[in-house]
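Contributing new records

If you add data, match the layout below exactly. Sequence lines come first and carry their own label; structure lines follow with theirs. Keep one chain per record. Anything else will be rejected by the validation script.
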Amino acid sequence: MDPAPRVELTPAAAELVRRLRDIHGPLMFHQSGGCCDGSAPMCYPEGEFRTGGSDILLAELEVDGVEEPVSFWMATSQYELWSHTRLIVDVVAGRGSGFSLEAPEGVRFLTRSRLVGGWPLPQPPAV
């Protein structure tokens, strides 16, 4: 039996992902943990944000109505802080970063979290 998902979308976030997918094609998320908007999940066209050795792939999100999975990446340093949580991507009113695809929509993605315990958590790659 699989543990609960590491990352999930609220219904509102899933609906926004479907709309953005229709406009921009396949999508990905990255959460860097930087300052300001960098600590929010940023949505990009798949492959538009270059991931590397300092990032970890947390999930391949299956979204009803979206043909391909939506990858969710996080900076390893941020993962170390959030590894004991389930990440819940939601949508709230307001302007997010100009780099994230939802910015023109008047909303922004937001990560909420729920503490979890007893999971065999994946370890981030050695840097």
